[in-house]
Amino acid sequence: ARDAAPRAASSHAPRASPPPSSPSPASRRGASVVARSGVDPESLAILQQRLGQRIELEGDGAQRLNQTAGLLLGADGRAIDKDERKKVLKADEKGQAEQALEISYDPEGLFPDVDEASASMLIDRKLKAQEIDAQKKEEEEAKKEWEKARAELEAAREARTQPTTHDELVAYFFATEFNEMEYEIVKQRPKLTDEFFERLAEKRNAETDEDEKGKLDALYAVTSDFVGFVDQTTRAMLSPLDRMKKLLTAPDKRAMILEMVDKDELDLNLMALLKTNINTARAGGQEDAAMFMEKIYAAAAKFVDGA
User: Fold this and answer.
1) Residues 44, 46, 48, 50, CA torsion sign
2) Angle, helices 41-51/82-102, rounded to nearest 10 degrees
């Protein structure tokens, strides 16, 4: 141990020389000194491994501990081999990480430790569970009510007597609730022909009662406007399908794309339909078809803004 030789009593007295076995200052360079602390051999060895340098101790048992320099000892003080050393170091690193997660800086005690088993915590958990259960029950009840109302609505729609003449169709629309008007116009679209609108105009012109005439005017405006919207939407949905078929079946895809560009037939509706078919093919395991359509999509997207 260092400082084994007694210190001189006076500065004028000759200083005692260290014993021959004491290490020289050069050999002690970089060494740390831990004075009189209770250090077990395993902790000392791990610390030396971490610092990469030798630690020399003073005090009781220092000679035995200093002899373990460079070694890693087990809890029983026995030197362990390289494989065991890796396990110990790995376990030590894991322990440090777990401890680091638990460290919190709260010198003023503003955030006291929470006792997970306390009565208040158990009550909070139970209240939260009850709140979740109540919310689930409300959602289930709302879903049941919606399904019930939907079934009743569908039953009421099916129970209505369907018109067969133009005059019956006019009366049918007059008996339809406002929020069901769009549905019924779409449903009765095949019967909303030019002949129907001619008959509706005749009834409006022949009507002498102003209130009834106003109702016929409103019905004519609502049905004719919404029929135009339905037809436009239908064409917008069907047209891309026809154009996509024409593009996919063309012998020369590049020439067909250029031709469709000249005719202004490439638009976002067609590109969206192509993308839908690509995704459908890929979901169905038809990877070759999906890749084929992707190439066409990439070539056509160059001519469509926003694609």
Assistant:
1) negative
2) 90
The Cα–Cα gap between 97 and 57 comes to 28
Instruction: Give the H/E segment covering residue 58.
Output: strand 55-58
Q: Is the pLDDT of residue 184 over 60?
A: yes
Residue spans of alpha helices (H) in the chain: 41-51, 62-66, 82-102, 119-159, 166-174, 181-187, 194-206, 210-249, 253-262, 268-283, 287-301
Please give the structure tokens belonging to residue 291: 């890749």
Least confident window among 120-129, 173-182, 279-288: 120-129
Mean pLDDT of 37-56: 58
CA 64 to chain centre: 59
Q: What is the mean pLDDT of residues 199-204?
A: 92
For the chain, the straight-line distance linking the first and the last C-alpha, in angstroms and rounded, comes to: 81
On whether the CB atoms of residues 297 and 278 are closer than 8 A, the answer is: yes
Query: What are 33's strand-pairing partners?
Result: 56
Tokens describing residue 88: 């110990």
Q: What is the DSSP string of 61-76?
A: THHHHHTTTT--B-TT
CA distance 302 to 307: 8
